């Protein structure tokens, strides 16, 4: 069964962990999905409620209330004691909690959107006590609040097969309340899960420098959820995706999920700037973010890690890198647990040579999957990446017409300076101006970011060159960086200040640089380079590219 989220994060209940593990091994159909910790904001009489599990299957829908530890009922009050000896007292029985949560879910969320599809479908609630025998011995009490048909005890939780039998029993019970029993189709299951999921999992964005992380949250796409399912099901996996498909975002989520399962995690990349940016996000203590150059020293100090997460893997695909990471991972590449994220367009834009033998070696060991949807770049930016570089940057998430790409010509240092300043004034002046922290100016390898930052500051725009310090928090300034150094990072507004006329160089740099822009791009180039780009841009000129 598909579990959302695919791994438990900060779950303190051993009972819920046990049920989570059972559900992973149970399936009534390929579309079956269980939602863990579903928040129910609109409850019948509570300000807030939470369902431990909502199981959406071909056979029907079950809300599960899970109670671990010791259970007692004294003078009408229920007592629940955990493994630490802490006792929580409630007036409601577990069944009453489950029923009120289910009927709120049904009335406030399911029926308004799916009443027709749910007609005749068995739906209800059940309670799971994984750690105790039957509450009342047979014959001692009928226990109307907890009928055996919808209550599971330790005997039902010996393994996933016995737990499946319990789910069948509970669904049969709720089916007996229907006249014309129907099943749920895979498409309806998907629609219901999609409607309910935003209530329980929100993922902090990686680009917290663009917006304050505490104010802004980013959700996984359907494709990213599917990839996370595949990742959680495989010890060794290769995830391929072009620039903008969210590889770093998914890699960071993998690191968090692995850490939540109690594993030590090495999250490695080659770029010191990307590593510094990742460290500025609050990963669990058992996640180590490091560059390749740091790995050997760290491994000598603390020993190998349980899980390896490699970001921008195409930059670490050589014999020396492979051997260094082999030693840092328990079990090595062949038997260890690893997630490798790489760009299939490395031939277009090679930052570091890819050893094809090493690449084939990894491909022979890991399950393969792809990220195809571009979640970072606006449609016009995605089109520009494809047109100018010939690389596949995925399908844009939004409308193809969204965003803006502008090509400007500058044949002298003075013209280049004028074009940069004009671009910044357009973005940072007037009503509705963007924030300075939304902007990056990218320069070629021969240029000095420090000098360009000084030039910009001299024109009245606060600016600073890219440093690890600049990536450690929100900086109210325009950032200036070399194209290569900004790999793996992003900004809503990107100004590329200068490309030479070499066709191969244009393709490589265009891919690396243009893909850094979320929404709007200004590309300033000498006439020769601009003409080469204009020829390539002919196919998209009618879609909003200005030359």
TrEMBL record:
Pfam families tied to this protein: AAA_30, NERD
InterPro entries in UniProt: NERD, P-loop_NTPase
Gene3D superfamilies recorded: P-loop containing nucleotide triphosphate hydrolases
Positions of the NERD domain: 14-129
Record-given protein name: NERD domain-containing protein
Organism encoding this protein: Sphingomonas limnosediminicola
Upper taxonomic lineage: Bacteria, Pseudomonadati, Pseudomonadota, Alphaproteobacteria, Sphingomonadales
């Amino acid at each position: 069964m598909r579990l959302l989220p695919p791994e438990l994060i900060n779950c303190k209940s051993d009972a819920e962990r046990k049920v989570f593990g059972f559900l992973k091994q149970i399936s009534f159909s390929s579309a079956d999905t269980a939602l863990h910790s579903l928040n129910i904001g609109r409850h019948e009489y509570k300000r807030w409620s939470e369902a431990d599990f909502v199981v959406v299957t071909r056979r029907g829908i079950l809300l599960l209330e899970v109670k671990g530890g010791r259970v007692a009922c004294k003078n009408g009050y229920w007592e629940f004691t955990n493994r630490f000896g802490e006792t929580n007292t409630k007036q409601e029985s577990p069944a009453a909690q489950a029923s009120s949560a289910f009927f709120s879910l049904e009335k406030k969320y399911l029926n308004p959107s799916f009443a027709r599809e749910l007609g005749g479908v068995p739906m209800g609630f059940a309670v799971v006590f994984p750690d105790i025998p039957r509450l009342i011995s047979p014959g001692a009490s009928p226990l109307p609040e907890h009928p055996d048909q919808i209550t599971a005890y330790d005997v039902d939780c010996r393994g996933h097969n016995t737990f499946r039998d319990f789910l069948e029993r509970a669904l049969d019970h709720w089916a007996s309340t229907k006249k014309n029993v129907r099943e749920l189709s895979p498409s309806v299951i998907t629609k219901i899960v999609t409607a309910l999921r935003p209530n329980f999992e929100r993922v902090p964005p990686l680009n917290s420098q663009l917006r304050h992380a505490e104010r802004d949250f980013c959700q996984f796409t359907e494709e990213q959820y599917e990839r996370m399912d595949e990742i959680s099901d495989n010890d060794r996996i290769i995830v391929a995706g072009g620039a903008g498909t969210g590889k770093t975002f998914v890699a960071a989520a993998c690191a968090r999920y692995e850490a939540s399962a109690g594993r030590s995690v090495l999250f490695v990349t080659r770029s010191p700037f990307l590593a510094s940016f990742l460290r500025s996000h609050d990963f669990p203590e058992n996640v180590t973010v490091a560059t390749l150059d740091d790995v050997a020293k760290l491994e000598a100090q603390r020993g190998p890690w349980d899980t390896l997460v490699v970001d921008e893997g195409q930059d670490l695909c050589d014999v020396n890198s492979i051997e260094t990471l082999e030693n840092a991972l328990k079990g090595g590449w062949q038997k260890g647990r690893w997630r490798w994220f790489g760009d299939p367009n490395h031939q277009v834009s090679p930052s570091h040579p890819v050893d094809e033998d090493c690449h084939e070696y990894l491909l022979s060991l890991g399950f393969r999957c792809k990220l195809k949807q571009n979640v970072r770049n606006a449609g016009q930016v995605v089109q520009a990446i494809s047109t100018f570089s010939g690389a596949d940057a995925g399908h844009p998430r939004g409308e193809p017409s969204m965003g803006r790409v502008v090509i400007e010509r500058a044949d002298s240092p003075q013209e280049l300076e004028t074009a940069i300043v004009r671009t910044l004034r357009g973005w940072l002046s007037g009503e509705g101006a963007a924030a300075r922290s939304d902007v990056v100016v990218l320069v070629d390898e021969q240029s000095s970011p420090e000098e360009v930052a000084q030039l910009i500051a001299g024109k009245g725009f606060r600016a600073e060159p890219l440093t690890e310090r600049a990536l450690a928090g929100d900086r109210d300034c325009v950032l200036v960086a070399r194209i290569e150094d900004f790999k793996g990072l992003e900004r809503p507004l990107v100004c590329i200040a200068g490309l030479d006329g070499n066709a191969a160089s244009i393709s490589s740099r265009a891919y690396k640089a243009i893909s850094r822009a979320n929404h709007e791009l200004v590309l300033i180039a000498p006439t020769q380079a601009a003409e080469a780009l204009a020829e390539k841009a002919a196919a998209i000129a009618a879609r909003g590219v200005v030359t």
